[in-house]
Amino acid sequence: MMVEIRQLGEHVGEQVTICGWVEATRGHGKVAFTVVRDGTGVLQGVLLKAGVDDATWEAQQSLTQESLVALTGEVKEDARAPGGYELGVTSVELLSGADEYPIQPKEHGVDFLLDHRHLWLRSSMQRAGLRVRAEVEQSIHDFMYNNDFVRIDTPILTGAIGEHAGTLFETDYFGDSAYMAQTGQLYVEAACPAFRRVYCFGPTFRAEKSKTRRHLTEFWMVEPEVAFADSNANMELQEQFVSYIVERALERCQEELKVLERDTALLEQVKPPFPRMSYTRAVERLQELGSDIEWGRDLGAADEAMLMEEHDLPLFVHDYPKEAKAFYMKENPDDPRTVLCDDLLAPEGYGEIIGGSQREDDLNLLESRIREEGLPEEAYAWYLDLRRYGTFPHSGFGLGVERTVAWITGRHHIRELIPFPRLMNRLYP
Ligand code: 4AD
Ligand code: MG
User: Fold this and answer.
1) Distance between Cα 89 and ligand 1 center (Å)
2) How confident is the model at residue 82 (pLDDT cuts 50, 70, 90)?
């Protein structure tokens, strides 16, 4: 009977067949071990030379790394074995062989590994990271569903700039120009009067000319948008949301976090409320710490890192200067040099994982912001309509999935937390 490795516990003492890829083989002489992975787990098969015919022994001895094999034998409980079970192998059937495998159990350079990403995915650390990613994505949908959000799928080909003119991927669209979506925000704003609480979740694109550990040119973002929420309510939603995601990963990805050697002590403390600090106060604090930052400039990665040395929990920095942020953010009535927005900074050096804001709901102010930014007004006519037909206070945010998963898994570079990373110098594989 063919079974999956994860089901072995139900078959102790029975004869079963496992189909999987060979991770490693060892042993000569009297006993040989074959470690196979079938996508549901890893199993060690034990073959005794005395117990099988020569052809079976030879078949095991000639297995190469990543060849596909069917092992048949009796399932045995063994606390020392990875996964807790072993297979007493009596039959070895090679289903398809493998050429010499490029990824060996030794140190490889990251460029080499990225060139072989289609194979690198099979290794234990990568599997663990991507499983946490899948759990994070599922927990995002579950949180939204449980809190009455309606999912809105927003377009990837767009006619208007969503965030900044500087980082657009432009493509020919039947003789016109289209932009790859930098955000779905403007579209979820439009869906708010239809459903009140909405979100989109999909890939977004930015022609980032920076090669840093936290920039991809294609990344996944979840963007909730809520009618009648102000900036304060927006931050409350963010801290509940992030706490839920972290809690789910801690609860359901224990094995993976162990493989990744993640120290989870700080993650376990991630619960609302998160501390808050105004941008103006953050600049003062950075100056006290010796930074040469001046009021008006957006916080860079180095500023965020310096600020976060004093924080173990995620930190909201709110109300940034208007010039540092996108055109759609609402002017702060208490200080019109600033806008009602927040960035959520993750601890342990991971920096900004969320950008959020209350949206400008005043038609005239929004029109003048679009003009000031030199954006093409025609492309925003539909967006301005939202302020013409029953304009309403609303807020939302975008959480970057890869940065969040990098933080939860403790991996240094976000490129490992997306199956096929797109970077400035990488479109392959
Ligand atoms: O701060 P950003 O640019 O905000 C927006 O796009 C808003 N429209 C969101 C909204 O209010 N609906 O991006 C949001 C998040 C960042 O905090 C970061 O986590 C992630 O998206 N992000 C990136 N992740 C990887 N690579 C990049 N190049 C990223 N740029 C942004
Ligand atoms: Mg941002």
Assistant:
1) 51
2) confident
